[in-house]
From TrEMBL, chain B:
The organism of origin for this protein: Halocynthiibacter styelae
Family: Belongs to the CcmC/CycZ/HelC family.
Name by which UniProt lists this protein: Heme exporter protein C
Annotated localization: Cell inner membrane; Membrane
Keywords, comma-separated and alphabetical: Cell inner membrane, Cell membrane, Cytochrome c-type biogenesis, Membrane, Transmembrane, Transmembrane helix, Transport
GO term, biological process aspect, one: cytochrome complex assembly
InterPro entries recorded: Cyt_c_assembly (IPR002541), Cyt_c_biogenesis_CcmC (IPR003557), Cyt_c_biogenesis_CcsA/CcmC (IPR045062)
Amino acid sequence: MALLIRDLRIATRAGGGAGLGLAFFLMVVILVPLGVGPETQLLARIAPGVLWVGALLACLLTLDRIFALDFEDGTLDALLCAPLPLSGVVLVKSIAHWLVTGLPLTLVSPLLGVLLNLPAEGYFWLMASLLPGTLSLSVIGAFGAALTVGVRRGGLLLSLLVLPLYVPSLVFGAECASALMNVKDPTTPFILLTVITLASLAFLPVAGAAALRANLR
Amino acid sequence: MSLWEYANPVKFMRLSGAVLPWVSVLAGVSITAALFWGFFLTPDDFKQGSTVKIIFIHVPAAMLAINAWFMMLVASLIWVIRRHHVSALAARAAAPIGFVMTLVALITGAVWGQPMWGTWWAWDPRLTSFLILALFYLGYMALWEAVENPDTAADLTSVLCLVGTVFAILSRYAVNFWNQGLHQGASIGRVDAVTGADTAEKVSNVYFYPLALSILGFFLLFVMLVLLRTRTEIRVRRTSALLARERIG
C-alpha cells in the first residue's frame, strides 16, 4: 500500500508523465478525423475501434516507466529484499500504472466519443469495456516492462514484445464497445475481456517477478 | 541410460554429429521426391488447376510454423525446470526456423489466394493468427538478441515463450470470434476426409501421398536445421568461453 502511494505520488509530480498518456490519447483521437475525413457516419462506425487503439497506444507509451527508473536508482534491488513478495511489487506497480493512465483514459473516453460522433447508446459499453480492458493492458504491459528492464533503450523492443500480447484484449474490447452498433450482444465479449483481465491479474505478476529476478541477478 | 544424458553438451555433440548426415540426406531425398512427385506426377485439380500444387509447400510449412513454437515451449520448460543449457540453445535455434516457416506459409498462401479467392490477403482468422504468430517469433528473437548475459536471456525468453504460448492460443480464438473465416478447415487430419466417407472435403489420395511425404521431409528438415543451429550455438558458447579464459590468463 505504501508502495502504491509512493508510485502514485512520483507519477503525479512534475515530470512523472501521468498526463502524457492522456495527452497522447487526445492527439490520436484528433488526428484520426483529420486523416480519414470528417464524415460523421464513417467516424461513428470506427469510433470504438479508434478509441480502443488510441487507449492501447497511450498505455504502451508509458509502459517503460513502470520499472526503468526504479531499476536505475536501485529501488528495485531494495524491493527485492523487502518483506513484500516480488510478484506483489509487480502487481502494485501495474495497478499504479493503471490508476494514472488507464483509469483517466476511461473517464475521458466519452468526451472523445463526442468528438468522433459515437452514438449515445455506445457510451456505456465503451466505458464498461475500457475499464477492465485498460487494467489488462497495464498488467500485461508491466510483464513486458519487467522482461526488458535490463535492456538499454528497450522501448522499441518492449512494444514489439507487448503488442502481440495485446491482441486478445483489443479484439474483445473493441468488439464489446462496438457490439451495439452491429446489433450484437455486448455481454459475451465483455465477459471474455473480464476473464482475460482477471487471469492476467492472477498469473502475470508471477511471470513478471520471475523476469525481474532474472534481470536483477 | 536416459534422455537427460544428452543435456551434456559433449554427448549431445557426439550424438547429433552422428545423426546429422543421415537426417540431412533423408530430408533432402524426401523433400525432393515429394516435390517432384507433387509438381510433375499429379494431375491438375479440376477446379483449382495447377495452383493446387502449392499445398505441397503450404501445408508442411504451416504445420512446422506451429510445431516449432511447441518445440520451443518444451525446450523452454526444460530450461526453466532443469536448467540444461543445450535445451535453451535448442529453443533459440528453432525460433528463426519457425519464423521463416510462418513467412513461407503466409506467402504461399497469398500466392494461392490471389487466383482462388481473388485477393492476396484477407483478414481471416487463420491468416491473422499466423501474422500474429510471426510477430511472436520476431519478439522472441529480438529479446534473445537484446540481452547480453546468455543465462539471463535464456530465462527471459523462456518466460516470454510460456506466456506467449497462452496468449497465442488466446489470440487464435479471439480472432475467430472477431471475423468469420474464408480459409477452409483442416482436412488431412480428419479420418473421414482421407478414407473417403466425406467426399466433399476429401483430399484425393493422388495428392495425399506426396503431401504426406512432403510433411515428413519438412519435419526432417526442421530436425536437421535445429540440430545444426544448436551445434553452432554450442560452438559459439565454447569459443566465447575460450576467449574469456585467454583474456583472464
